[in-house]
Amino acid sequence: MPVRSHLLLPLASCLLISCGGSSGDGPTTGFGSTNNLDNSFSSDGKVTTPFTGGNNAIGSGDANAVSLQSDGKIVVAGAINQDFGIVRYKSDGSIDNSFGLSGNGIVTTNWSVNLNSQADSIAAMVQDSTGRFVVAGYSQVSGNFRFSVARYLSDGTPDHDFGFVGSATLQPESGADSSVNAITVQPSSPGATDGKVVLGGFSGVGGDTNKFALARFNTTGTIDTGFGTLGSSVFDLGGNDAIYALGVQTNGLILAAGVSTHTCVLARFHADGSQFDSSFGSTQTRINSLAGTVVVPFGGSDDCQLRSIAVQDDGKVVVAGYTITTTTSGTTSKFALARYDATGVLDGAFGVNGIATVDMGSNAEANAMAVQADGKFVLAGTAGGNFALVRFNANGMLDTSFASDGKSLADFGSGDVAKAVAIQPNGNIVAAGSSGNQFAVARYKP
Hey, which of 138, 285, 329, 445 has its CA 20 to 30 A from 430? Predict the structure, then answer.
């Protein structure tokens, strides 16, 4: 039976100069009036896409991932009305009506027919070597949230040759709730493009018992039973644990960046997902004495979260996230970067003793990172209720040539959060996320 795939009739995508307002969601630090927005994109550098719900009510949209096509089009994925949702934009910021089946550029897929799903959401996306989109997140099946992965053709239609008519799910632990936060491709050999899909997230029963969770699927969408235990593995770090980003080193070893109860953690696993790689890191930096893990020393008395990872051509590993610290003087949020060598030792030549941070005010989170061709790092997230971008030089120092002293704010209206960022071939920066219940996309000049 084919999956039920349908398209939503969108409300007009509005230019934010006319439908946005001041958010007033919190103070920010050190932002000037220059934001580097590219005015050739939707006339002011910003676009939102609202959605309709049942009975023409206002719908909901939450964008979490972005992918760039070679023709300059921008594909944004997340959840639309609790279904997998994908929107494609042209290079000028308008919706590409040729994407999907019903001629409006918006694709939603409810997997209830083949999965008996009550809710679905995309958290991460990669584009394979043929231009197909592999997306992953969660599907709620029979009351439990499960790892969920699906593949779409380059035109936005579900790929029925993947999994069971386009999708597949996996439950890393019986009876537990689980969700994917990250996706990566693990090449079958160095330089190969035929790799399997590795998913990372969490699994657990109850709010404070989550564990790191990994799973691997074959390119056909079947579970790779040679990975972990029959396709998945869970790792208890001793706290409330979750993977938010994945990377693969040239030798196939899997890197995972995430959190264990407000502590930033980087871990490395064997290529088959069976166990931690105990050769990674040092005994002085482990969390709860677990060999193969590294506590990233960003600080932050209230919270520390790793949200992104990049493996450089020289084998060094860069992780990004944010910290929150509260003192008698108030709360401070910082975007943060750290660089490690391939063995898990901090690179002292990067930033200050391997660490780079920048103060973003009292209400900020860094959710994504992209690496430019020149080696500079762009972090995207939120600050004061607005899209926030920060750029660091390749050596970890703040790039004050970007926007206002290295930092940029873009105000869409209210509750603006960038959750994904990518670099176009011409150097332009694309950030995607949400503003209220709408997809939001901004493009910046380099």
Answer: 138
How far does CA 39 lie from the centroid of its chain? 25
pTM of the complete model = 0.91
Q: Report the distance separating Cα 230 and Cα 215, nearest Å.
A: 9
Token pair for residue 91?
């290079």
Q: How far is CA 43 from the centre of its chain?
A: 27
Length of the chain: 446
User: Are the beta carbons of 16 and 44 closer than 8 angstroms?
Assistant: yes
What is the residue-wise DSSP string for 61-83?
EEEEEEEE-TTS-EEEEEEETTE
Map residue 55 onto helix, strand or coil: helix
C-alpha to C-alpha distance for 33 and 404, rounded to whole angstroms: 7
Predicted local confidence at residue 33, as pLDDT: 59
| Rounded CA separation 304/320 (Å) | 10
**Which neighbouring-strand residues pair with 133?**
127, 152
Q: Residue 177 in contact with residue 203, Cβ under 8 Å?
A: yes
The single-letter DSSP state of residue 283 is G
- Helix or strand holding residue 124 (H, E): strand 117-127
CA dihedral 230, 185, 245, 216 (to 10 degrees): -10
What single string gives the DSSP state of each residue in 406-435? TEEEE--SSSEEEEEEEE-TTS-EEEEEEE
Q: Which two tokens stand for residue 70?
A: 């070679």
3-state class (DSSP) for residue 280:
coil
CA distance 400 to 392: 8
Contacts of 179 (CB under 8 A, 6+ apart): 123, 137, 138, 145, 147, 201, 202
Question: How far, in Å, CA of 304 to CA of 325, rounded?
Answer: 9
